[in-house]
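Can anyone check this?
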Amino acid sequence: MDRFTSLSTGTKLFLVAAVLLFVDLFLTWQELPLDFGPNSQVTGSLDGWDFWGLLIGLLTLGLLAAVIVGETNDELELDSRFELAILAVSSLVLAIAVVKNLRDSDSAWASYLGILLAALMTLGAFLDWREAREDEAVDAGWWAQQPGTSRRAAAQDEHRPSW
């Protein structure tokens, strides 16, 4: 438990949302009304495990494995590119969840919860990516070129008096 509390806010948000999204796929994502004549009508419940749901589930498990390995293995030197890849794939999961919800007719509450959880995963990945970018900017030091300045402008600033 101490290890979980030592994680960043983005990582905690990502891990909890990813686990809940995977569990959410087992809930009812569609409620299809089935008509069997004038006297009988039944509602069929479908979970999230169709093609799109399988893709969401596999990508979520892969993301969980990558984040857990990245957080537990101290020998890995991961930079913001790793966090950017996690952000890109979690954004893909969000896009697939939205497409699945739009393509499915008679969506149930669990499908909307799945979109919310995928958005929270993406938010957690974004927070981690932003934190990794800030850490790299601090590590670059004072001599690193500032964003938005050209090399020529930086060289001219070195020759100007600082009074």
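Reply from J.R.: I decoded it. The beta strands are 28-35, 41-47.
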